[in-house]
Amino acid sequence: MAVATTIMHEEQPRVVLSARGLSKGFGAFMAVKNVDLDIEHARVHALIGPNGAGKTTVFNLLTKFLQPTAGSIALLGTDITKLAPDKVARMGLVRSFQISAVFPHLSVLDNVRVALQRPNGLSTQFWLPVSSLDRLNERGDQLIETVGLKRERNMLAADLSYGRKRVLEIATTLALDPKVLLLDEPMAGMGQEDIGAVSNIIREVAKTRAVLMVEHNLSVVADICHQVTVLQRGEILAEGDYATIAQDERVRLAYMGTEEA
Questions:
Q1: In a domain, 137, yes or no
Q2: Do 105 and 118 share a domain, yes or no?
Q3: pLDDT tens figures, 73-113
Q4: Strand, coil or helix: what is 143?
Q5: Which are the contacts of 205, defined by CB distance < 8 A and separation ≥ 6?
Q6: Could you tell me the residue range of the domain that residue 42 belongs to?
Q7: Rounded CA gap, 151 and 26, in Å?
């Protein structure tokens, strides 16, 4: 008697953001040249490279702060190459910046509530009383707890340490419910304790969305990133997991030096 068996296949990673032939010239200077990227759901993807490699330019192209000279960009299967940044953000592609962008004279909760206004249809209803934002408190508290800021809930953002301000910025970014989250040097200027905390947050966030990050801290990249793309002079030098790119002699010479990784 034959016994029926079920073969379980591992689900293939789903590409949610992709670029093909992405290029950007400023006059005769090509800052980005023919870059192909595939960013997958529930993965952390790092974009690394020496200063001037084109990392931030790629971020600006993907989020449409810059228009590419050539190439195409697709988000969730839709071509966004010619769309404006605000439309791309509303589709679920949200980024943070190298410089912390929070409202210093608002509390932690109020910063998150401001960010929650758009997805909850309150961003243009300026005639409503402040009390109308109370409906956002429950979701705001959830986000604050997610990023470990529960104790600082009622503190002014100005009174937070630099690292905690960056954590608050992640919370406000998550308030927009991104499908793809772009983080520009999230660990810059942080102490080791904050780096560990933010690494854990990013790892948790990436369980339900794609994360693309520019990061110079290679220990962080090795710890939390599933895929790494190395840029040099605007071109892709190498791709793969950290173990693979760390052994690539071209990468070691261009970015990591010649010491053993």
A1: yes
A2: yes
A3: 999 999 999 999 989 998 999 988 655 678 899 999 999 99
A4: helix
A5: 170, 174, 181, 211
A6: 15-92+181-186+209-261
A7: 47
